[in-house]
Each structure stands twice: as structure tokens, then as C-alpha cells.
Amino acid sequence: MLFLRKKISGENSIEELAYILISKIPDLELVIFPETGNSFSKIVKNICYARKHQGDINHFFSPSDCYVIPFLKNKKVVTWHDVGTGLMSQSVIKRWIRKKLLMAFPLYFADRLTCISEHTKQELKELYSGSENRSLVIYNCYNPKLEYTQHTFNTQKPIILQIGTGMRKNLAHVIEALQGIECVLYIVGKLSKEQKRLLEENEINYVSEYDVDFKRIIELYKLCDIVSFPSFYEGFGMPIIEANVTGRVVLTSRMGAIPEIAGDAVYYVDPHDINDIRKGFLLLIKNVSYRNSLIEKGRINAKRFTVDKMINSYSELYTQLAK
């Protein structure tokens, strides 16, 4: 059984990966939790639902729901997409509850832990010191619906694609960095009032789309000239690989797992330095040969993250657990 969180509006990456697993591994069935959130009643409902639908091997693909693990009898696997996001809260009490009760404690009962990067594996080790002997890294794959497309870069008015509007996606600094640069900023994600104010204040020509399906995401990658991803934190950084596959140049940061995933196939900036971000955009717009070299390196880099590699790794893990 592959257990997945209830769909969160505006979130697609984990769901797309889960659907790939279901489509490629025979006899793997999808179970979607009925509730999202950490209220007592919702937790109890999810626990009862998981107990009712458990199989011989139970794979939890959204670790936010792994608190159900102690209540299941059979083999249990948890995939960790990152650790830091789950601990992001202004409330010290909420952070402690998430860290100890909803994240660390259930890990004692898991048979195996998979991490989507070496960086996440190290984070998990710091969260739960007993995890290293049961942990392995299985990289995410890009969606096979993505493909390389020829594209003529618009040097006069490039389209810059920003995936995500959450705090760690660093949209505010991107907006300020683009002030005065002739471009169109395409934003995927729900804009806050403050972000809208910044866009207007900096006179940015922008298009905003929210809760789009993956078909539209593919269209946006094909449409854009640059993918903007100077995050403050990432457990993997899927838009980097998606841009690599499509043949679009990426501006990103060295935070979290990004250097491990992106290698030398991107342009790195300091996400805290608006001038450095601005300099990066201008370089990618103006320097044709450098831009093309990054695109070619990106196509090579993407080969590390194919569907077959991910499916083979999970299939081997399931076989080991079934013995």
C-alpha cells in the first residue's frame, strides 16, 4: 500500500511522484488519507483509516502522516522529502510537537526510511539518531511527460518562471531583483497581499496562476526562458530537474540539497543578496554561450533522475521487505 496525504491546494510534486509509482509497480495500491491537519480528531480518523487499509508492506509517501505508523502491524516504510519544512513554525510548542510526537517518535516503528537526497538523510539523522542504519537515498525522478523542446530565447523581453510563492521560495527578493529589467514574470502559486504590493511597487509585468495541473506546468516550462528558483531551503528541488529536462536555464541557490541535485548545471546566486540575484538574471539574459552551456549540462544532469532508476530502487526495497 502506498499512503499519500490528502490533496493540498497548490501542491503537486509529491502527488505526481506517487502516481508514477502506482503506474509502474504492479500490485501497488494507493491509499489517500481522508484528513489533513494535526487536530486530535483528524489524527484519530487517519489512524483508523490506515489500520483498515494496511497491507503487507505500507509505504508512507507523505511523512506528515507517519504518526499512524505505531498503530500498524506489518512492514512500514517512510519516504522523507525534507525535514526542515515540517519544522517551520513560529510557535515553539508547535515545532516541538511536530518534531517529537509527529516526526521523531513514529520513526522508531518504521522498518525502512528512504530519503530523496543525501542532504535529507543527514537532516533525518540529526532529528533521530537511530535512523542511519535503516535509511537509504532514493532520488526522485522527473515526470516522463516532460521532454526537451527547442526554444528561441527572448533577449528583449524574457519570460521568467517562478515556481512557488511560499516564504522559502524567495519571491520577494526575485521581485526586487527584477526591478527595471524588461521581462514577464510568470508565477505559479497563490500570491499574498504583500507579494502583490511588491509586484506593483516594483512595476513588474507579471502573470499569476494558482493550483494548476501538471499539464499546465509542462506548458509553462516550454513557454519560459529562465526558471527562477533561488530558494532559502530545499530537500530536493524538483523544478531544477524539470527545467534541465525541458532545456531551460536555471537560476538557483546553494541552499539545502540543491548543489547535490543541480551540480554544475545551473547558475548559483546568494538568495539573501538582491544585487547578486539581479546580476545573475542579467548574465543569463545577455550571455548566450554561457546560457547554452548550462542548458547542455542540464540535459546531462537530468539523466541521473529517470523513472527507471527510481522504480528499480523502490521495487528492490519492496522485495527485500517481503522476504
Task: Please characterize this protein's 3D structure.
With 323 residues, the chain is α/β, with parallel strands linked by helices. 42% of the residues lie in helices and 15% in strands. It has twelve helices and twelve strands. The strands form two sheets. It has a six-stranded parallel sheet. Helix 5 links the parallel strand 7 and strand 8. Helix 5 packs across helix 10 and helix 8 crosses helix 11. The longest helix has 16 residues.
Helices and strands in order, then pairings?
Elements: E1 2-4, H1 13-24, E2 30-32, H2 40-53, E3 57-60, E4 75-80, H3 92-107, E5 112-115, H4 118-127, E6 135-137, E7 159-163, H5 171-177, E8 184-188, H6 193-201, E9 206-209, H7 214-223, E10 226-229, H8 238-246, E11 249-252, H9 258-262, E12 267-268, H10 274-286, H11 288-301, H12 307-322
Parallel strand pairs: 1-2, 1-3, 3-4, 4-5, 5-6, 7-8, 7-10, 8-9, 10-11, 11-12
Keywords, please?
alpha/beta; 6-stranded parallel β-sheet; 15% strand; Rossmann fold; 323 residues; globular; 42% helix; 12 strands
Number of domains: 2
The residue fraction in helices comes out at 40-55%
Measured by DSSP, the beta-strand proportion falls in 5-15%
* Assigned CATH architecture of the largest domain: 3-Layer(aba) Sandwich
CATH class of the largest domain: Alpha Beta
What's this model, at a glance?
The chain is α/β, with parallel strands linked by helices. The chain contains twelve helices and twelve strands. It has a six-stranded parallel beta sheet with strand order 2-1-3-4-5-6. Strands 9-8-7-10-11-12 form a six-stranded parallel beta sheet, with helices on both faces.
